[in-house]
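Key idea: predict the complex, not the pieces.
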Amino acid sequence: MAEVSEMSEPTAGALEREAERDDNRTRWLLSLPAMIIIVLAAAGPLLVMVVYSFLTPGDYGNVKWEFSTQAWVNTILQRDIFDDTLMWADAHLSIFWRSLSLSLITTVMAFAFGLPTAWFIATQPPGKREFWLFLVTVPFWSNLLVRTIAIQELIRAEGVINNLLLLLGIIDEPLQMMFTNFAIAFGMTYVYLPLMVLPIYAAVDKLDFRLVEAAHDLYASRWRTFWRVILPLIKPGIIAGSILVFIPSLGAYVTPRVLGGGKNLMFGNLIELQFGQGRNWPLGAALSLMLMAAVMVSLIWYVRVTSRERSDV
Amino acid sequence: MESHSETAVEARRISKIFPGETEVRALDDVSVSIHRNEFFTLLGPSGCGKTTLLRVIAGFEPPTMGALFLAGKDISRLPPNQRPVNTVFQNYALFPHMSVANNIAFGLEMLGKPKNEVRKTVDDMLRLVRMEALSARRTSEISGGQQQRVALARALAPHPEVLLLDEPLSALDLKLRKEMQIELKRLQNETGITFIFVTHDQEEALTMSDRVAVMNTGKILQIGSPQEIYQRPAERFVANFIGESNFLDATLSGHTARLKAGGAYEVDPPKGVSDGTVSVLVRPEHASVRAGEPKANEIAATVETVVYSGEATTLHLRLGTDEVLKARLPNNPGGEALPEKGAAAAVSIAPGAVTVLKD
Amino acid sequence: MSEPIRQPRRGYSVRSLPGFAVVAVFTFFALYAPILILVAFSFNAGTSLAIWEGFSLRWYAQAAANEAVQEAAVRSLILAGVAASVATVAATMAALATTRTRRFPGRTMIYALINQPLMVPEIVTAVALLIVFAWIKVATGHTSMVYLISAHTAFCIPFAYLPIRARLETMDYTLETAAKDLYASPWKVFSRVTLPLMWPGIIAGYMLAFVISLDDVVITEFVKSAGQETLPTFMLGQLRRVVTPEINAISTIILAAGAILVSLFFWLSRGRR
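Result:
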């Protein structure tokens, strides 16, 4: 019967594949505007930066289109101006070290203050909890520059803290707090603290307190319970919070610029230098890619650690 | 053979395979013809494919193989918004940001009906499901039973050729469910629309349907009227799924089945069953029991358990063959006393109550 | 003789850890003190940032009259308005494409791309944009706001995306299925069912994007052409000079604006159902 084939019993899966193809196409079209914008003004330029890292610096900034690996070499090495020997670029290396150590210090300090805060909020009765949570989030959403300026006004030589100490007679001369490593660490801790609190809060909120009760029931003191039972259980939250503080600290620009001045550069400031006085765009590009690599490594480490945590349980 | 004008929906060899690590065959070569103005039920346990079949008819899932016909036309390729088929969803899916009246009007508005026609139909529908007083309410402010009626009205308003109902009564409490069963039957009669009803509740299927299709693991096992399905189940699964069953071993020769436990019964074996060892079905309500020794054509048994359930008592009887037979006897005041636990009893099976099963 | 047993007043709570409450309260205090001091001194009658000389609104008046401030404020608002609008539209479309769906080819890539601005340190993006835009500026001589707008739009997209996506995921997909069942075309399904229900998420996304754009410093600093100051870059520049409480006044206004927008955002994301 010829008509039966006209009625087209579709080949197995043909209708499904057609529907799927249409669906995929629609989804791609819908995502297109966002993707185009981000490729043009966020992701794409990163690739251009890779190219620029292999060019030669121009005489007045910008670049000369000549291939060179000099920029990459100069990230960690430099030539002695007198006898042209290759040696470590101490200035750069000390900046890398400062960035790493200050970021770690910031993370530790944020943890020291953030953990009790998160614990406190999570153990409040449900009605009050919202209030405290709101209270901790508001600074988080406030302008970073404003918060940094607030710290600056506190620790300047003519700032509130010094005036108070002078007034109370505790010191005779203003303490030099600005433009030090301390200032940067203090500022970054202040600015990124809420980022440590929120993930730990989430972890404590999910904690099954019956486990804690069980530990107490089995004669453990508060501290031992904390070390042996609570801490391991909220570890994912602590790790998340640490990463959320560490990574922005590593790439910080505003806070070290305002509080560290020109003498205590962090990674971000060093990068900026190449596009200002330094006039070495390829070096700036290379340094930026290094920073990005450092961030990626931290992220990969984080993913590894958290997936291991999950599979251990 | 039915002519096309009698058939509302025809599924021809429909298969639906979901890909994955383990392929899931939700529908396996399913063919069924549903008549116009029929209350047709798809019955089966969870995962049997009944909801998948419904979704294929509605157009939400394209079939992997096979074709779908509506009043003779091939609609396999039509998107759901072009099929004159409407669905009452299990969770009602009422639009929370619209009032009851606007929900009901939705389909008509999408079809571009003129405003006064829409208003009239909405009023008719509200009257039909007795929700006139609540027409302006938000759907989140009415009870579950009321939501159910709105979902019905919304699906009926565009007067589709076929109405699909996906376990619409499962969220209702018992009393409301029984009321709605009668309500649905009435609606189907009044509107003349073909209803395709999906449920896992076999009692519901038996009370409401003109015909029932029993499904399991993606296949249709049997289609028939409620009486046919109940009295002459085609195979063991159907017998087990519908009502209570006793499966006994027997030997078949011609039209006589001799139970291993004793007694010979006249049977009408289904096609394809040959003489020899067979399984037979006896419904508990067709077995009667009295205390004492068995007489002719009675089976010897010992009472193992007695279960009282208000209107009836079920006795679990251990037969000589070590099989267990459940007998269900109505509790008539002034009737004979039933044998007690541990007592010897005699079981007799009503003539014509033995059904041979195709295994 | 036995001593009376001292009953603990509140009973034994496993939830309290010694010292934690003290540190927590202190931390809250420390979090707010610098900001509150900043705000307080914006009302200082004197020129000092640390010595109180009485209450005055002079710095607010001065800031309001300052033309550079006015220009920067207007530019900030326009930039945020445009960038947030475009970002929200793009994010809405992307969220519709990537939420409540099976795994489709390319989904991971789209996710990665949408979240990319969040993964990369701002300074790196800023520098990359500087390079590319410098080249375009030299090639075309064009130095309008288009660079800033595109840069802001790009990093606003993931911020608009997140609340919209969160809202979409709470929505029951059967509603759209029901609309299709009732003869609605794809556009009608979107305009009559999806859009009205996801609207709070879109507004929340817009507001988040707006705040993020208003607050941005790093990328704006590197992408702007001469004279294209926004309020944050203006303030950054002012820090190099003699600092007066005018900075505090501007800061307070920025804080207030941010606080209002964020409160609205929270109210929208939580309260409404």
